[in-house]
Write a structure and sequence with these properties.
2 domains, six-stranded antiparallel β-sheet, Alpha-Beta Plaits, 8 helices, globular, alpha+beta, 34% strand
């Protein structure tokens, strides 16, 4: 009899956690942040693009989706949530935003550059936390009030997004996954083979757990590319050697998280050249890492 009851008792013990996760009022989280989420599975991700900034690099006007796409995401943990995010800031905004985040009980997990020589220079502040998602969203919103991050709703009749003037079918074939168009940029998310864990949760793509590769057309079949690879320590130098062998600049090597397993490093890059040539270079670099195979 005890053998039959044990699974029932275990299920009953687990049920409160699932019920609490379902009880999160995401509409209140939306209201606290002043944004609507994109929902992927149980992850609620909020875009915080710096569309107010006019950033250029070597004559390329950088679109928000290429390298200015800040975000925060929440994943349920019992009746609470795990928070991860990446905020795009100017140099003068770093300290006031950080101060409000820390005062609100959130953690700073990294501050760094993604690209080089851009004007104005932009920095990226990674933030983490665990607790009431509505309260954490309120802290994020209050902290970003110390920056010029826009929170206005999109225009009622927005202009159509610019066309992706690239051979996207060929790019999909080379990179090995299907890309998506976003704000005039063609984006890829290439997952790693093995799961990434943080605080007992799997860090999925919406939480920043996938190789991010972005192509912005620059005319005549060329594209500016940037993004980040996430790799283990033994993969760092094979990957950057592959990038340099294909004339792709390595712009940063750093961490984004503090307690992830396995330990990962994020490698950012830049190039502006023939898009097909660059895609082949990116693929050669990906092959030096443990990516998921389709």
């Amino acid at each position: 009899m005890r053998t039959r009851l044990a699974p029932v008792m275990l299920l009953a013990a687990a049920m409160p956690a699932f019920a609490q996760a379902a009880d999160i009022d995401w509409k209140k989280v939306d209201a606290a942040l002043g944004k609507s989420a994109v929902v992927s599975g149980d992850v609620h991700r909020y875009g915080l693009p710096r569309s107010d900034l006019k950033v250029t690099l070597e004559g390329v006007a950088i679109k928000p989706a290429l390298a200015l796409g800040g975000w925060v995401a929440f994943a349920p943990m019992g009746g609470e949530a795990l928070l991860m995010g990446d905020l795009v800031l100017l140099e003068t905004e770093i300290t006031p935003v950080m101060t409000k985040l820390l005062d609100g009980g959130l953690d700073i997990t990294a501050i760094h550059n993604h690209i080089l020589r851009a004007s104005p220079a932009t920095f990226y502040m990674h933030v983490g936390g665990h607790g009431d998602p509505q309260k954490m969203a309120t802290v994020i919103r209050s902290a970003l009030a110390s920056s010029n991050t826009p929170f206005d709703p999109p225009a009622a009749n927005p202009s159509p997004p610019p066309a992706i003037d690239l051979d996207t079918t060929k790019l999909d074939e080379i990179i090995g996954v299907k890309g998506t168009a976003n704000g005039g940029v063609y984006q890829f998310g290439v997952p790693r083979r093995d799961p990434i864990m943080e605080m007992g949760l799997k860090v999925t793509g919406p939480l920043g757990g996938a190789n991010a590769i972005n192509f912005q057309p620059t005319g005549n079949g060329k594209a500016a590319i940037t993004g980040d690879f996430l790799v283990t320590g033994d993969e760092v130098n094979p990957l950057i050697r592959a990038l340099r062998a294909n004339d792709i600049e390595v712009t940063a090597i750093h961490s984004h998280m503090l307690g992830e397993q396995p330990r990962l490093f994020f490698i950012h890059f830049w190039a502006n050249d023939d898009a097909i040539k660059l895609a082949r270079g990116i693929r050669a670099a990906l092959e030096k890492t443990a990516i998921a195979k389709s």
